[in-house]
Design goal:
The complex is a heterodimer of chains A (130) and B (285).
Chain A: H1 5-8, H2 11-20, H3 32-36, H4 47-55, H5 59-63, H6 67-70, H7 76-80, H8 87-99, H9 110-113, H10 118-128
Helix pairs in contact in A: 2-8
Chain B: E1 2-6, H1 16-28, E2 32-35, H2 57-68, E3 73-76, H3 79-94, H4 96-105, E4 118-121, H5 122-126, H6 130-135, E5 145-148, H7 172-177, E6 181-182, H8 196-199, H9 201-217, E7 222-225, H10 228-236, H11 238-244, E8 253-255, H12 256-263, H13 268-271
Parallel strand pairs in B: 1-2, 1-3, 3-4, 5-6, 5-7, 7-8
Classes of the chains: A mainly alpha (130), B alpha/beta (285).
Chain lengths: 130, 285
């Protein structure tokens, strides 16, 4: 399969690199991010697969994944990446691109609200709503 | 010693046990925490998207309040507040343009921010005075094994870390000063699931099961933390864990200041064990 470089370096990928201030092309697919990710079991794409898809210009596959909403930005991948990529910021860039289309990714069951601490509610809204 | 202190919203509500135990036990160590006037929510999470400068305003405003007190250092207890204030501060220190933008936007503030405040976590102060802590202990907590849980934001990312990202030990001197024994457990820096507790509770229940079980299997009698969200998840979510896993052994999850207050022999209005879901009194006797 041949992929045209123009297909890869599209508008969305440019936005990801601007928002995250990271270069996805420096990833060499060692898989350390996926090996250490505590949420990998709940993800449909592993963190290294997210990086790989971005390298191939398949940004839409990443934006429609469950993975970017499961990631809680714990920075385990970011501190372990041998190439110094802040993967948590790449995930945030992907979330932000979706959220800015005015789509919210949280539903709070009403009886739960009263039991949840402020810190949980505020961070949840900050991360999962536009 | 008087220190400027940023509490954050949760220390005034569900984590009141953190604040009460800290203020009362610190005063025995001759440390008085003076609350910043007119503080506001820090935003709880540091904004990771490069153009989200608006979200840096809340933490920076709090640092302006510190300057207005005539202070250049602020003590934070909550891990999430610490991380957010610390990283916003580092951002404006290295990025003059962003600092100028924030100052221009906050033009109604009488004080301009200049990046000069140091954001410090309470553990960084306490690690310097283990002997002083030891002096104040009423009855040493002999035989008690304690699992220090750091979670994410005290030790990651590197620019905000107060200790090693993989093997932090900064709570150990405090635990040892109280006469207890710190135990290593492999989940001490594993994320508890954080805010996923709101809309993806099952994920946090599973994580709580793994983290608490790991501490138990390493013979810990209780878990210590400094994050109100980790405390909520690891403590309250044990209810669901107990329903789902009959083999599960519950463990109390305390703020490190609660254990300190207990070691100092302070009463219930300082230890505030009434706010813990898993009662620590079974382990502490």
């Amino acid at each position: 399969m041949r992929i045209d470089i123009k297909e890869i370096k599209g508008e969305l990928l440019l936005r990801i690199s601007e928002l995250s201030e990271n270069n996805v092309f420096s990833c060499y697919q060692c898989g350390r991010c996926s090996a250490g990710c505590p949420s990998a079991g709940s993800m449909d794409l592993l963190p290294n697969q997210v990086m790989n898809l971005l390298q191939l210009g398949k940004v839409d596959k990443v934006l429609s994944s469950k993975t970017i909403w499961v990631c809680a930005a714990c920075f385990t991948c970011s501190v372990r990446c041998p190439k110094g990529i802040d993967i948590a910021r790449v995930m945030e860039a992907a979330r932000v691109l979706v959220l800015r289309e005015n789509i919210d990714y949280t539903k709070i069951p009403p009886p739960e609200v009263e039991t949840l601490p402020a810190i949980a509610l505020v961070s949840n809204f900050r991360k999962l709503t536009a | 010693m008087r220190l400027a202190y940023y509490p954050g919203c949760t220390l005034k509500t569900t984590a009141k046990s953190f604040e009460d135990s800290a203020l009362k036990s610190l005063s025995l160590l001759d440390i008085e925490l003076e609350e910043i006037p007119r503080w506001n929510c820090c935003g709880t999470v540091y904004s990771l998207a490069s153009d989200n400068i608006m979200f840096q305003l809340a933490p920076i405003r709090n640092l302006i309040r510190v300057l207005e007190m005539g202070e250049h250092r602020v003590i934070v207890l909550c891990s999430m507040c610490y991380n957010t204030l610390k990283r916003a501060n580092l951002l404006v220190r290295r990025d003059k343009e962003t600092l100028d933008k924030i100052n221009e936007f906050a033009y109604l503030e009488e004080t301009k921010y200049d990046g000069s405040v140091e954001v410090v976590h309470l553990l960084e102060i306490l690690k310097e005075i283990p002997d002083k802590i030891k002096e104040k202990v009423k009855s040493p907590l002999e035989g008690l094994k304690v699992a220090p849980y750091y979670g994410c934001l005290l030790v990651r990312p590197k620019e905000a870390a107060i200790d090693d990202a993989e093997n932090p030990t900064i709570m150990n001197p405090i635990i040892e000063s109280l006469g207890a024994e710190p135990v290593y457990f492999p989940y001490s820096v594993e994320c508890c699931g954080s805010y996923q507790t709101v809309s993806n509770k099952e994920l946090v229940v599973q994580r709580t099961y793994e983290i608490v079980s790991s501490a138990y299997n390493n013979h810990a009698g209780l878990i210590l933390t400094s994050c109100p969200l980790c405390q909520f998840n690891l403590d309250r979510r044990q209810k669901e864990v107990m329903e789902a896993h009959p083999d599960f052994h519950p463990l109390p999850v305390l703020y490190f200041t609660q254990l300190m207050a207990y070691g100092f022999g302070l009463s219930e209005d300082a230890t505030r064990f009434d706010l813990n879901y898993i009662d620590p009194k079974g382990v502490l006797k």
